[in-house]
């Protein structure tokens, strides 16, 4: 890490040590005493306008990040991983984790004046699991097929039931994906939530969405009535949170340097040195699935495990990640990042760069011929795979892709990459007519692997279908003992290291820069800023 960066980094890598800074800073704040200041927050946000403004249906991290200002949750997850009251004053875990009883606050109202109550919880959860909603991630976090229903016990008591113990639920219930919209909106405008906007994106949060110009900006205005934030937090001390959508990272840094933005997020490591010296750089490692390549074993050459294994050993991950990301992102060894509960550290250094091993595996798989370009052949077929990527692609990931392609070509493997607009990408992703695709996926609970590796997982891009893995993932979701869960997920990680369905490359961090004019800004466990606690001036 360059010394210049070291002097400015407020906190790095370890998730538990950096999240949720000074959440009590606004505790008991008096709305009448709140100022009229404005914080301008510059984000990447390129795909929000593509119907991605609803965390209950969108899988994009940026959706949950911006709509956290509007959508409150039942519970709040603290920096140490524990849970504290938010919209729920207290709760009981019943039947070994198969049922959760929440006692709700009785003083909460939505921005449109509708009271928050048990019926509102039921309406939102019913909407998430309704097949017509087409929710994927939120529905999975709500238990998927394990979800049995939500019961209104009385006006301010609600019970959420599952068909078996479901350990990840409290963590899921702390996220914006299971946050709450006004029942009035759900009754009359639910079909507009994906597009979002004033009088549509209506929650109980510390801010109200008052203006939205797609691909330009979102304006959130202080909710003066807000008194129910976690840890006693009240209404924000500033009036306006303006979100500027600036897809180009260099433009975001320029906005910060010129004073046009107070906070910027999603900075690539190569631009951190351009952040003004008096600003603070906050770098928090994402928990969850590292940025990875997904090898489609039901389509093309990756049906052969030896080819998948050769693919993993042919890539010089250490060199590429270190050089391209300036030492800021650690190389990944497992399908869980090192800051994720259940991470199996025994996998570190277990599959190093080894082109000789890759060549031997490809020989064993029968790819022994070579064409005029040096690409391996078998029965007249070239060893070729097609990688589809979702646009926009940051420059650093483009450079990483070039390095991967070069390494593979050295062992006679032709990897062709197509960068596609969302519509064209989905045309191939839906029917799984690709060989490779890529992403990272943030999540605090290792249950996120269920969506990526279970036979019916909504993000099973590798098309894995293994009854033993399905059983392990179900066991992990239903086991409440921490040691037992860690053992289950260690088995899943070790299986993938051998099976090579997913090839983890690096664990990204969410890098933000904050102007000295902004104080009291806090961050959640994903590194996303929480503006309700901030002050400006």
Automatic annotation (TrEMBL):
Residues 1-27 form the signal peptide. InterPro entries: Peptide/Ni-bd, SBP_5, SBP_5_dom. Keywords: Signal, Transport. Gene3D superfamilies: Dipeptide-binding Protein, Domain 3, Periplasmic binding protein-like II. Residues 83-447 form the Solute-binding protein family domain. It comes from the Bacteria. Belongs to the bacterial solute-binding protein 5 family. This is ABC transporter substrate-binding protein. It comes from Microbacterium galbum.
């Amino acid at each position: 890490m360059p010394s210049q960066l070291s002097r400015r980094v407020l906190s790095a890598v370890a998730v538990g040590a950096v999240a949720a800074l000074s959440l009590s800073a606004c505790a008991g704040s008096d709305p009448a005493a709140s100022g009229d200041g404005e914080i301008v927050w510059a984000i990447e946000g390129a795909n929000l306008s593509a119907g991605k403004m609803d965390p209950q249906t969108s899988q994009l991290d940026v959706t949950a990040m911006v709509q956290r200002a509007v959508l409150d949750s039942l519970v709040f997850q603290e920096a140490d991983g524990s849970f504290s009251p938010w919209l729920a004053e207290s709760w009981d875990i019943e039947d070994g984790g198969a049922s959760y009883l929440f006692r709700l606050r009785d003083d909460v109202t939505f921005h449109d004046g509708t009271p928050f109550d048990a019926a509102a919880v039921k309406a939102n959860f019913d909407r998430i699991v309704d097949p017509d909603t087409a929710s994927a991630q939120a529905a999975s976090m709500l238990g998927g097929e394990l979800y049995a229903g939500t019961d209104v016990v009385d006006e301010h008591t609600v019970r959420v039931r599952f068909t078996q113990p479901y350990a990840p639920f409290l963590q899921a219930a702390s996220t914006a994906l299971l946050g709450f919209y006004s029942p009035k909106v759900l009754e009359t405008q639910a079909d507009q939530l994906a597009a979002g906007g004033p009088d549509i994106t209506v929650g109980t949060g510390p801010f109200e969405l008052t203006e939205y110009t797609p691909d330009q900006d979102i304006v959130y205005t202080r909710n003066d009535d807000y008194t129910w934030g976690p840890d006693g937090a009240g209404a924000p001390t500033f009036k306006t949170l303006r979100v500027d959508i600036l897809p180009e990272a260099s433009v975001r840094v320029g906005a910060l340097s010129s004073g046009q933005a107070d906070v910027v997020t999603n900075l690539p490591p190569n631009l951190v040195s351009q952040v003004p010296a008096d600003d603070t750089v906050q770098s928090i490692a994402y928990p969850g699935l590292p940025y990875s390549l997904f090898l489609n074993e039901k389509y093309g050459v990756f049906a052969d495990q030896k080819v998948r294994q050769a693919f993993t050993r042919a890539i010089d991950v250490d060199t590429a990640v270190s050089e391209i990301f300036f030492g800021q992102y650690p190389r990944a060894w497992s399908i869980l990042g090192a800051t994720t509960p259940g991470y199996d550290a025994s996998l570190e250094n277990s599959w190093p760069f080894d082109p000789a091993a890759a060549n031997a595996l490809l020989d064993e798989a029968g790819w022994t011929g070579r064409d005029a370009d040096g690409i391996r052949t078998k029965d007249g077929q070239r060893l070729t795979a097609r990688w589809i990527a979702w646009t926009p692609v940051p420059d650093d990931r483009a450079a990483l892709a070039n390095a991967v392609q070069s390494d593979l070509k050295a062992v006679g493997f032709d990897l062709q990459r197509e960068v596609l607009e969302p519509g064209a990408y989905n045309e191939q992703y839906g029917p799984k007519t690709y060989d490779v695709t890529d992403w990272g996926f943030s999540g605090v609970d290792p249950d996120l692997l269920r969506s990526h590796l279970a036979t019916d997982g909504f993000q099973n891009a590798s098309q894995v279908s293994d009854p033993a893995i399905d059983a392990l993932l179900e066991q992990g979701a239903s086991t409440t003992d921490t040691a037992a869960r860690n053992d289950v997920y260690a088995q899943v990680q070790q299986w993938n290291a051998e099976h090579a369905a997913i090839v983890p490359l690096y664990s990204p961090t969410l890098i933000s820069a904050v102007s000295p004019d902004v104080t009291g800004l806090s961050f959640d466990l994903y590194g996303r800023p929480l503006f309700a606690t901030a002050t400006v001036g």
